[in-house]
Amino acid sequence: MLGNALLLHNYLGQPSLDLVNWTLAIELKFYLLVALTLPWLLRPGLDYPLIASALVILLNGLATFGPAGMAAPALPALATEGVYLLFMLIGVGFYQHLVGGLSTLKLMLRSLILLGGFGAAWACSAQREWFPLVPGQYALALLLFSLGYGLRHHFRPLRLLDYLADISYPLYAVHAVLGYASLQALIHAGWSFEAALILTLSLVIGLATLIHHLIELPSTRFGKRLAARWQVRQDAVVAERP
């Protein structure tokens, strides 16, 4: 439990609490990566996608083809996570483009470099037996997202979809353990599948809504206040320089 809470379970050879939350752990590590390397990530050049891709390919090559047991289980776990982080970094470029910090050409080049690095790293990773099928699906997902991004001005708000988007992270976090366990418990207690499904969906969506309002939103506001204070201090330091 502690290993999962500290995001260290896979480095220690411990299993994830369920079959879903390992993806959320990678997402949290992505947030930490961005927070620690943001000035580098926001530079308009192509150095970071090239360096990041080369590093992740190297890590996976060492983990897969290096000496047996090399830094196991930490190195293989870190190398595998790096593959996913490369793909997630593509989104940083889209954000920069959205706010006017990156040209369309640079966005395309960055995306292609990171996607290529992602594919090459996957091909020499512990999951290489799934190449090119699964990486190809990621590429199709990126293509679909890019199409939606290009047509973003044609979309209109839909209250139900906006609500589901708001609670999507906590919903994803709780649906596996609570949802599957509740569904099985209710069915074993004699409930019909339909009734058990309705109650389980209500419980999961209700809990996700509570987490969104009581934890997620306050945490976001707190983070923004910290960032604002840090920016004020940075501005003050710059202003004091001769």
TrEMBL record:
Transmembrane helix in keyword set: yes
Keywords: Membrane, Transmembrane, Transmembrane helix
All residue ranges annotated as the Acyltransferase domain in the record: 14-207
InterPro entries membership: Acyl_transf_3_dom
Stretches that traverse the bilayer: 20-41, 48-68, 74-95, 107-124, 130-151, 163-183, 195-215
Alphabetical list of Pfam families matching this protein: Acyl_transf_3
Molecular function GO terms recorded: acyltransferase activity, transferring groups other than amino-acyl groups
UniProt-recorded name of the protein: Acyltransferase 3 domain-containing protein
Organism: Pseudomonas oryzihabitans
